[in-house]
Amino acid sequence: MALVFWRSDTGERDRALDGHESSVVALCAVEVTERVLLASLGEDKTVRLWEPASGWCVGTLPGEDLAFTLHAVTVEGHSLLAGTSSDLVRLLDPETGRIAITLQGHSDSVDSLCVLRVNGRDLLASGGADHTVRLWDPAAPRAQSCERDPRPLSRVQQR
């Protein structure tokens, strides 16, 4: 499957970035070695890193643990990719391809995730099928707070 770029001025197709073997389910920008790259998560269980100007795929990372969400988060000056995996939030290091941090606390699947910038630090908020919203500081990997709601949560986002 391809990522397709469209011209905003004409609405015409500009180019396609081929690489994933199936649908792309999430995209975000991430800084890697002082370059801003486009990260894509595919149903083929890979994360691909793209140089947007040239269209080159500059890296492929294992994404077998990640499902349907991908966010860039800065932890102690280092850019990581955050995604969900069952009842976990995982942070992948795009430079090494390894899981750098695992955030554990939900008792059921994590269905939504967003990054919040608070006092100059990136925090993560996760919402789960366990009816909780958890706030995480990835630099100190434990849940900072937890709110329980009797209704199922389908989305967490910053306003």
Automatic annotation (TrEMBL):
PROSITE patterns named in the record: WD_REPEATS_2 (PS50082), WD_REPEATS_REGION (PS50294)
Alphabetized UniProt keyword annotations: Repeat, WD repeat
Matches recorded under SUPFAM superfamilies: WD40 repeat-like (SSF50978)
Repeat keyword on record: yes
WD repeats: 17-51, 103-137
Name of the protein in question: WD40 repeat domain-containing protein
